[in-house]
Amino acid sequence: MRRRYFVVDLFSGGGGFGRGFEEAGFRVVLAVDNYPPAAKTYKANFPHAVVVADDIKDVTGATIHSLTGLAPGEVDVVIASPPCEPFTGANPRRQRDPLDRLYTDPAGQLFLHAIRLIGELKPEVFVIENVPGILEAPIRAAIRRELARAGYSRVYFNVLHAEEHGTPSSRTRVFVSNVELRPPKRRGPTVEEALRGLPPVGSPWPPNHEYPQEVGGRHARRLRRLRWGEALIYYQGAGGRRLPNYIRLHPHRHAPTVMGSSRFIHPYEDRLLTVREQARLMGFPDYHVFLGSRDAQYDQVGEAVPPPLAKAIAEEAARVLREGVEEHARPEASTGAPQRQ
């Protein structure tokens, strides 16, 4: 990389996406997240970045330029992780009409605000992360249409698997971008490999390795009998799907997808994983600290883009920026606010 490229991180959460980009040599100059624990976590881990703890609907490109001191055109990359709840099959209350998930659901509309800010900042490269549910034909077409209105006529829906890019847990996500993302594959560690070397629970280092909540009552008795890969409880997702939780991890495999609601049982001990152990399953380095309540910490871990996957994406973005983006569509003036068509 000839120079350090500047990144704006929207819906930044606990900093998984930003961590991967910084590990690849980028510089996060500003992050936006209105969840107070996440904003505090981000500032603690990226003290050089401006952290805007505000509703993204109230943030403009001019605001970002003013806060960072960067002129229009000097933001090289925008990364964004708008809420996935409107689109995921794990949400039993998601709206039936796919377009309503994007245009009517207040959380879904935040995806449109990410596009709005991309249109205002006009970065060379943008990457928006979300769940495979956005690949439904009506949503996919609408996203293409809105990005074209923002000035980006070339759009890719890159489907990537975190476990194929150095992450110890499985995770399939879609990364919408104006460049094709094909990072080299690198197998992620197993659960046992990811947890190896951690000191006993309650040790002063690393952070977030405190004793987790105990599982009590009849669940405690069942927990002790669980085999690797078995779940203690099930909950209902969209379409009546039964989804597992409190899974005893198989030590010689990747972990299942880590979500904010996920709790895992240690493969060898009859207890839940600590926040730090769960963070290791997402590929976070031990020096990345999580602030807020215990539940808020688990949420930030589970809702993050795994740093190893983020780094692989960042290295692809760096390659494109080094080579020049002539062959990719350059941003043009935005044609107005998003509208349902």
Characterize the structure shown.
- This protein has helices spanning 16-23, 36-45, 61-68, 98-103, 109-121, 137-149, 191-195, 217-225, 275-281, 294-302, 307-323; strands at residues 6-10, 27-32, 50-52, 77-80, 125-130, 156-161, 172-177, 231-236, 242-248, 264-265.
- Mean pLDDT is 91; it is low at 328-341.
- Helix 1 (16-23) packs across helix 11, helix 3 packs across helix 5 (109-121) and helix 5 packs parallel to helix 6.
- The chain folds into two domains: 6-188 and 304-323, 3-Layer(aba) Sandwich (Rossmann fold); 191-292, no CATH class.
- It is α/β, with parallel strands linked by helices and 341 residues long.
- Helix 2 links the parallel strand 2 (27-32) and strand 3 (50-52).
What is the CATH domain class of the largest domain? Alpha Beta
Count of beta strands: 10
What shape does the CA trace take? globular
Number of domains: 2
Strand order of the largest sheet: 3-2-1-4-5-7-6
User: What is the straight-line distance between the termini?
Assistant: 41 Å
Say which CATH homologous superfamily of the largest domain is assigned.
Answer: Vaccinia Virus protein VP39
> In which range does the helix fraction lie?
25-40%
Instruction: Work out the radius of gyration.
Output: 20 Å
Named CATH architecture of the largest domain: 3-Layer(aba) Sandwich
Low-confidence stretches: 328-341
Order of helices and strands: EHEHEHEHHEHEEHHEEEHHH
Q: How many separate helices?
A: 11
Largest sheet: 7 strands, mixed
**Mean pLDDT, all residues:** 91
| Proportion of residues in extended strands | 5-15%
Q: The CATH topology of the largest domain is what? A: Rossmann fold
Classification by helices and strands: alpha/beta
